[in-house]
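Lecture 7 notes. Example A: sequence first, then its structure tokens.
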Amino acid sequence: MTHPNDRHAGDREFATKLIHFGSEIDEATGASSVPIYQASTFHHFDLEQPPKHDYSRSGNPTREALESYIALLEGGTRGFAFSSGMSAISTAFLLLSAGDHVIVTEDVYGGTYRLLTTVLNRLAIESTFVDMTDFEQVVAARRPNTKAIFMETPSNPTLKITDIKRIADWAREQALLTMLDNTFMTPYHQRPIELGGRPGAA
């Protein structure tokens, strides 16, 4: 039970959010931490009213808790958990279509570079790699078919720092999607969504 004097979860300090994120008590059992649900399928008690979870590939209580937790720490509205960083990045790039162009941090993670240059290029998704510490290079890389900007900051492996707010503000003015790999900093040290100026901007 929440004490009346407790602040809203969104107002708590980061370390407190790590412990009390709002869904840490399991509703079904009262467990003080979310249990690991290993079931792949969930029972349908009524075919006219399907359950919240029906198949773990599309949703699972344990994964849902993690996704809610990360969204809270990032300051986002929704989180999605993947089996790896590259599966998350690949899925984000699949928001693009054949003929689209993306501006990318020049020294981006090797897996991201290979995805763009050996897989997505075959799907007619074009990439231009620029030094994002130089804002003018970013602006100059924009084409009529540019749809997104992908930042990684600090970059891997040279640790170059991109001005997230400046790039995100410009991208929004150009109606471009902003994507950012925050692996190195995590939301404890860097909060791209806040720097993007609005929820969902980064």
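Example B, a different protein, same format:
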Amino acid sequence: MFKEFREFAMRGNVVDMAVGIIIGAAFGSIVNSLVADIIMPPVGLLLGDVDFASLFAVLKEGKVAGPYASLAAAKAAGAVTINYGLFINTIISFLVIAFAVFLVVRSINKLRRQQEAAPAAPETKECPFCLSVVPLKAVRCGHCTSELKTP
């Protein structure tokens, strides 16, 4: 049973999938940092000095009555909150990741189309005398024995 599992786990596509998941997780953390640390501060500044990560609505106050200065203070007090600012950050992160994946897939499709469009070099030619198909490097036709011009 262990041998079968090892064979399954070492198959090429399983290993490729594992590498893809690990790289995807790392890419996700980079994109989250890009959104939270690079994109959202200028957007918040343009919208009147708003920090999206700290936007929340209190559904039920905690042990200490509000208003709460920050999301961390509300959580520390045990308040029940809807964290719509974090949700906005998550949506923007998703859009950035989706756009990056779109660009990668688009590039791969473009490369595939270029490879498919390139015609393969011919390996045969036609004898001008008997119209039989002969190898490209042939100097005589195998059917009528006529001398052929080499390209």
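Note on Example B: Strands lie at 57-60, 80-82, 124-126, 133-135. The mean pLDDT is 84.
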